[in-house]
Structure formats: structure tokens, C-alpha cells
Amino acid sequence: ERAREPTRRRVSVDSARYSSRSLRIPSRHSPVRPSVRPSSTMSDDTGNGNPQASFGIPAAAAVVVGTILMLRHFAAAETTWAVRLQVLFSWTFALAVLALVPADVAATMKNEPHPHLGMLWDLTYWTTFALTWFLLPIHQMYEDAADFSVIGRLKTSLRENLIFYGVILSVIVFGVVILVAYGTLTTAGLSGFGIVVSNMFGIVTGVFLLGYGLVEIPRSMWRSADVETRPRRAARRVGVAAEALKNAHHKLRKITRASETTQEVMPRLHPLRWAMKTIANETPKASVFASASDALASAGAYEDETAPEEEDDFLDYDYDEIKDLVRLRRALHRCLRVYRRTAAQYATCVMQALEAEAVATAAAIDGKSCLMGGGGGGGEARFRSPFRPPRNTKFGETAEKIEWWWKCRAQPLALRVASVLFGVFSALVVWSECTMWTTQAMNLSDVSPFSALVRTAASSGSEGGIHVAVMIPLGYMVYCAQYSLFRLGMFSFYQLVPRHTDSFSLLLNAALTCRYSAPLSLNFIMLVHSLQETGRETTFTSKMYENVPVAAQHFAAYFPMVLGVYCAAILFGFFDKLTASCCSCLPGFRGAKLGDKYTFESDDKDLEMDLHVSEGRRVVERERASFAAVEGHGVVGAGCPYYYDLRKRDIGTGSDDSGSGAADDIESNDRVGLLGNRTRSDESRDRRWERTKERLGDAVAT
After folding, report:
1. Residue 294 CB neighbours (<10 A)
2. What is the CA radius of gyration of the chain?
3. Whole-prediction pTM value?
């Protein structure tokens, strides 16, 4: 018996191990809940054979690399590192919200929840929420302020954001009243109310941004494929840019003259001389305007520079107060900012116009050299760019032939095909948005093509297929919305110009990107009704709908129906006609100008009757002659006397007349004098300064 006892113990232990192991094996027909499989969940954290990790790492790398490249492409050279880091941080988190959608959908369809997905959603959503509503607006106005100290600029930013924050505070108070009335005033209730308000604003405005991109992207591609009409459209853009550059040059010259005259007439011992010295170091030199003056004196097309219709406010300022000098400095910064980006836009439009003419001429002559090539070629299909000298080598001739086939034959065909594909995709998006209510608010049939695409990918068992099925339509919708955000500069909110985007425009675009990332993600998830067929909902949907009233959920499902009507109105130019008819009621030319300012740029206008086309053609003719004279080595600027490549060496009117040492010695005394009692000599200087103000006004007026 003693000999058999160890054997019995071993058998019982083995049986126990087997029975305990068999308890963890689920039945083939029994449902498996995520909480029953902790071992597989823990293995997901390590990333060993985990598709979520295999797609998450490339997605994170793509987001970071994409934001860095975008910032490098758009940011101006003078953009500070604080702005660059803020914009990079904002763009990264905004794109991270969108990058989490494929992972969340795949985890829901496969019933394999990721343990850190909820934490990532909270981190990205609330970070972008804080950025778009609180941090970025303060930073925007801080960059636009022109006070002479950091504290002064911060105070100006807070003061000018009072209206914005007043609206936010009123909304919060309204929400608190509603929550108190229903007896749900808790932290979760307040967060749910904030989510509802933010998402409703994002969905309402985001639908209109999405609609414009859905129509304009395929249409612009179709127009670009027409090489015959491309030069006319490019000439119109050049004419518009030349007129804008003329106005920007006029304002910059006027504010520069005001700054220089103020520096000349201000007494050397004036209490604000230190502030005037700072402004003088930021004022463009006289050489910036010398070339324009010479060209205006000799060019018949620019005999007289007419002033813009709107008078500049800084002509009425009194420059003997610190707040007036701050306003002068701010006006100078804004004029410099506008001129730099307008000059960059003009150069870009000129390059595109010259390229369009070269392609059109090469394609029309059927094999002969293009307009910029100066003849030759003997009927061969060769393309000679206006921006480089002719290639006379055998390899160069082959490269020109390949370039001709691409620009004159293959590229137009590729643009036509891409336009049709994008048009079909836009139609699918519009159909899905207009029929979203059938599944989200009512239990009707699922007619969303994107839902069917995700369902098909999930049925195949490929998690990578689910990621692709989500990324393609979501990426196109994001591209359409971002395209509209980049075109919002036509409304004079901001401008995004490659290599010349100022700090204010970058921060404003970052705020808008953060504002629309979460609503776009929620809108796309609502399009995929196949997620509800699994009996589960995504992590993001559960967080967005937590403590959210049913009425708000139904609003998010019903409102996208207006997208179809809005896209049809854009397609047929309804808003342009409405704006033109309304602005025609205004007296004079100002009404037409107002209509052009507050409408999207439209190429549906009669280009031959547009005055900008004829002016743009004259400008392009002068620019072409400049390039042809030096065989492709020319520079932009010969066609418009108001163009100047303004760089850092062109800023600063020179040192102060009183000498740097004397200015440094009196700077501390000047600042003390602003707060202390004025002496009799100070009063006499002030009286002398009052007498010179008339000279200042006369000098600026001339």
C-alpha cells in the first residue's frame, strides 16, 4: 500500500491538471467573451503576433513623419520654434485621433478589444479638445500681438479672446442650468455636455467643409486635365495675385513711411525712443521700394499707383503714447506678413502659368518644341521647360521626349481617370451620409457601401483587410475636409503658402484640424452600420455616447442629409450666383469686391470677359520674356514692379541717430518716466512733440 500511494498521488495530480486545463477550453458552440480570455489579452500587450501592434507602429510613424513634412513644407523661415512645436504637437494628436479609428473598428469586428485603446482615445480626444478651445486661441493672438514685452502680449491675447471665451462660458452656464434642472450635475454629466456641444459644432460645420471638398477635388482635377484652357485659368490666377500684391505693396510702403517719419520727427530724448528704435529695426529698408518706384516711372501699364479703397487706420494714430506705438508695430507686422505671403503666391502663380503655356503649346503643335523653347526640334515630340536651358545632349533629348509624353499625353489622361474615380468616391460618400439616418435613427436596411466594404473585409478573416477598408474612405473624407480648410484662406481668415506661412496661420490651421478630427471620426463610424450587427460598439462610440441624450445622437444622424443639397448647390454654382445678386445691390464697385472676397474662387466664370485674365496675360508675357532672355536662368519679378523677395537683410532702417550707447543709457530712465512724475523738461519735450505731429501727418499723407 505504501508503494502504491505515490503512484496514486501522481495520477490524481495529473487528473487534476488535466481537468483544470479542460475547464479553460471553451466549447465550440458557446460564445466567448473577452473577459474569459485574459491570456490572449495579455499577449496583445507584448505585440507577439498581434495585428494591432503590427498596424499601430507604422500608423504612429506615418503620423509623426507626415506632420513633420507638412510643417517643413508650409512654415516660413522666420517661424519661431515655439510655434513649430505647438503646431507639430497639435497636428500629431489630431491625426492620431483619425489613426485610431481603423484599430478600433478592427478590434470591434474581431471581438478582440485592446486594453489600452480606451486610454489612447481619452488622451487624444481631450488633448485636442484642450488645444482647439483653450491653448491654441491664446497662442494665436499672442503671435499677432505686438506689445514690447511677453506679459503685454499675453494680456493682449487674453483681452482679445474675451469674446470667444465669453461665448464658451455662456454655453457652459447654459449646460450647468440644464444639468441642474434634470438633476444630473456631475463630472460625467459635464463632460458629456462638453462632448455634445463640441461634436454638434464639428458635425454642422464639418459637413459643409466635407461637401466643398467632395465637389471641388474631382472638378479641379478634370479642369487640370484640359491643357487648352489651363493657360487661361492660370493667367486669371496671376492677375488676381498681381492685384493683391499691388495692394499689399501699397499698404507696406505706407506703414513703412509712417515708421520712418515717426523715427525722424521724434525727439532724441523722448520717453518712448526705445520703443521707436525697436520698430525701426523691424521696418523694411528704402531699397525694397526703390525698384518699384523706378518701374512705375518707366512702365506704361503702371503709370499711377491707385490707393486701395479702404483707408489705413494707422494714419490717424498719435504716436506719442505706448499703446499707439504698439498699434503701429502691429500694423507693420501684419503688412509684412501679408506682403511676404502674397509675393510667394504671386511667384507660384507665375511659375504655374509659364508651365501651363509651355504644355499647351507643346501639345497643340503636335510634336514641335514648346513656346519657351525658341523653335527648333524639327517636329520631334520634345518638351523644353521655361525654367532651364535647352538640353542639347543625346540624353537630354531623350529626357525631353519622355517629359513631352508625360506632360502632354499621359498626365492629362491620368488626371481624367483620377477625376472620375474621385467623383465616384464622392458620390458614395454623399449617398452614405444622406442615408445614415436609416440605420442610426430607424431600424431600416443598411445601404451604406462603406459598411458593406467593412463587412466583406471582416468576413474574410483578415484584420489587415479591415484596416484597409477603413483607411481608404476615411482618408478620402479627411482629405476633402483638409482641402476645404486649406482653401479657407480665400475668406481672408488665414493663408497657407508653401515655405511662407506665418505663425498665426499655422496656429489657426492647427486649431481647426484639432476641432474637426473627432467629429469626422465619429461621423465615419456612424456610416459603418455593420459594427452594430456584431452586437458591440466601438470604444470611441461608447465614450462619445456616454451620458449623451438620445436627441443629440439622432441629430448627428439626421443632419448629414443636407450634404446632398449642399453639394448640388456647389456643383451648379448656386452660392456664387446668390452672392453676386446680393452684392450687386450694393452701390459702386465695392459690392463686387465684397462678393469676390466672401466666396470660394470659381473657375466657372467667363474667363475671356474677366479683367484678371487680360492683366494676367500681360504679366505672364513680361515674365516669359525675362526667362527667355537668359535661357531659363531668369527669376520671377520682371512682370510686376511690386514684387520683391523680402528677406531678413532687407529689414531694419539703420541704427538710431542718438547712438546705441546713449539709447541704452536712457532706456531705463524712459521706462521709469512712463510711471513716475514728469519733469519740466519732459513737459517741454512733449510740447515739442505735439508740434511735430502735424509734420508727421503731412509727411505720411504725401
Report:
1. 11
2. 32
3. 0.80
Nearest one of 638, 612, 684 to 270, comparing CA atoms: 684
Overall average pLDDT of the 440-451 stretch = 83
Report the pLDDT value the prediction gives residue 147, as an integer from 0 to 100: 95
Determine contact, residues 50/44, Cβ cutoff 8 Å.
Answer: yes
CA 557, distance to chain mean position in Å, is 27
Q: How far apart are CA 308 and CA 252, in angstroms?
A: 12
CA distances from 335 to 247, 249, 281 (A): 10, 8, 15
Whether the per-residue pLDDT at 432 is higher than 90: the answer is yes
How many other C-beta atoms lie within 10 A of the C-beta of residue 540?
A: 24
Is the separation of the CB atoms in 133 and 114 below 8 Å? no
pLDDT tier for residue 293 given thresholds of 50, 70 and 90 = low
- pLDDT, tens digit, 9 for 90 and up, residues 534-556: 888 899 998 888 777 777 888 88
The count of C-alpha atoms lying within 13 angstroms of the C-alpha of 638, restricted to the half-sphere facing its C-beta, is 15
- CA dist 498 and 71 (Å) reads 9
Cell readout for 421 is 474615380
* Chain-centroid distance, C-alpha 153: 24
Give the pLDDT mean for 31-38. Answer: 35
Residue 641 confidence (pLDDT) above 50: yes
Spatial neighbors of 97 by CB under 8 A, at least 6 apart, are: 124, 125, 128, 517, 518, 521
Q: Is the pLDDT of residue 286 over 70?
A: yes
- What span, in angstroms and rounded, lies between the C-alpha atoms of 477 and 213? 8
Short-list 242, 274, 254, CA closest to 332: 254
Neighbouring C-alpha atoms within 13 Å toward the C-beta of 637: 14
Half-sphere exposure of 269 (CA within 13 A, CB side): 9
- Contacts of residue 631, defined as CB under 8 A and 6 or more positions apart, other chains included, come to 389, 390
Give the span between the Cα atoms of 128 and 306, in whole angstroms: 46
Count of all residues that appear for the chain in the document: 702
Q: Are 383 and 408 in contact (CB under 8 A)?
A: yes
- Which amino acid, 587? P
Q: How many CB atoms lie within 10 A of CB 341?
A: 23
DSSP alpha helix (H) spans, 559-651: 562-571, 574-583, 590-597, 611-629
pLDDT at 298: 59
Query: What would the grid cell of residue 485 be?
Result: 480648410
Assign 3-class secondary structure to 12-47.
Answer: HHHHHHHHHHHHCCCCCCCCCCHHHCHHHHHHHHHC
Evaluate whether 273 touches 266 at the Cβ level (below 8 Å).
yes
Split at pLDDT 50, 70, 90, the class of 14 is very low
Residue 51 has pLDDT above 80, yes or no: no
As a whole number of angstroms, the distance between CA 537 and CA 31 comes to 17
Cα 19 to Cα 16, 23, 351, 686: the distances in Å are 5, 6, 78, 100
**Mean pLDDT for the chain overall:** 78
Percentage of the chain modeled with pLDDT above 90: 40
What is the CB neighbour count within 10 angstroms for residue 144? 20
- Mean pLDDT along residues 117-128: 92
* Stretch 285-312: mean pLDDT: 58
Q: Which long-range contacts link 655-662 to residues 24+ away (Cβ below 8 Å)?
A: 656/263, 656/273, 656/277, 656/280, 657/268, 658/268, 658/269, 658/273, 662/268
